[in-house]
Amino acid sequence: MEQQIQEQVQDYYGTQLASSQDLKTNACCTEDIPAAHKKILATLESEVLEKYYGCGVCVPAAVQGCTVLDLGSGSGRDAYLLSKLVGEQGHVIGVDMTDEQLAVARRHVQAHTERFGYAQPNVEFRKGYIEDLGSADIADNSIDLVVSNCVLNLSTDKAATYREIFRVLKPGGELYISDVFADRRVPESLRQDPVLYGECLSGALYIEDFRRLLLNLDIRDYRLTERRQLTINNEEIERKVGNIKFYSITIRAFKLELEDQCEDYGQVATYLGSAPDEPHGFRLDDHHYFETGRPMLVCGNTADMLSRTRYGQYFRVDGNKERHFGLFACGTPAASPASSPEAASSCGC
To answer: What are the pLDDT digits (tens) for 245-296?
Structure first.
């Protein structure tokens, strides 16, 4: 059955869809793009843009010089955007299982290399399966940043996919994804519908199962940065899914040893205003915005996310964990109903 679903997805994105205009719902069509990114996208080849099927923005700040892995890179839109953002010293690897999409992405490598003024390409596209990144020759602890744009819901073995992600990430590396999640478990009958699966709906994880999956991988805290409820805009498909609510959610998580609650150690974080294109402030998630120069009391997990990752050069974090003051004053995730997407984030502060 899993192989059959993979083949259906390959056929859907390889032959049935000629462009994003052929999609039957709005699940993969969110566009909320920063102005700096729009300028880069305007320089990309039209074929790359027309065959893009993502569901949001999945490019975090401060990626210069990073080695980035784009899972389900498709026609290469996000990979080429990242190619420009990481600079000539960075490297971008796109992985996809669909030959037709890989062909589109690969034939524009040289054009974009010249357009960005690079002496050599800093982007490549490999055929492989996101459930087994060894199929694309991705080594352990080799990646600074993993991104994926409305693709992980298409995985037929999500536990294997996330296990592979955290295998290839370096310690302190970041997962930054935009994907579709559900407010309840999707029944198997809908999962077997090739259109619903291809439209990124029936393969969506129940958000609480996503939390449990990461917890099993020792990822005890992750953060939401954006979310929206999908309206679908297709009466036939809306009848099929009934009362299930689907959300496009952008999530970040780090390969760090964190606690499962927000604990208070009296630590204070100050953003220095030095991250590129972020002079006035830095947003970690949907409830942590750091105004440049303004100290903010943070929980231990937030302090680690800001100091033990590539973001450390842009922050001053005062204090350590020698003295503990109990739970962070903001509360805990248990304060939110389990069925609410807001409960998805491990951090309740």
So the answer is: 999 999 999 999 999 999 999 999 999 999 998 999 999 999 999 999 999 9
Q: H or E segment at 175?
A: strand 169-182
Q: Phi/psi at 292 (nearest 5 deg)? A: -55, 125
Three-class secondary structure of residue 126 per DSSP: strand
| Cα 110 to Cα 120: distance, rounded to the nearest angstrom | 9
**Residue 81 to residue 273: CA distance in whole angstroms:** 23
The tokens describing 327, both together, are 């739970």
Distances (CA, A) of 22 to 15, 303, 326: 11, 44, 53
Q: What is the mean pLDDT of the chain?
A: 89
Q: What is the pTM of this model?
A: 0.88
Percent of the chain with pLDDT over 70: 85
55 contacts 179 by C-beta, under 8 angstroms: yes
114: its two tokens: 């010249």
DSSP notation for 147-158: EEES-GGG-S-H
Kindly state the DSSP code that residue 270 receives in the 8-state scheme. Answer: E
**Distance separating alpha carbons of residues 4 and 1, to the nearest angstrom:** 5
Lookup: tokens for 289:
């915005």
Q: How many angstroms separate the CA atoms of 209 and 338, rounded? A: 11
The count of residues in the chain is 349
CA-wise closest residue to 305 among 296, 294, 315: 315
Q: Tell the burial category of 236 from Cβ atoms under 10 Å away from its Cβ (0-12, 13-18, 19+).
A: exposed
| pLDDT tens, residue by residue, 55-65 | 666 899 999 99
51: which residues sit within 8 A by CB, 6+ positions away? 17, 18, 19, 20, 74, 75, 101, 104
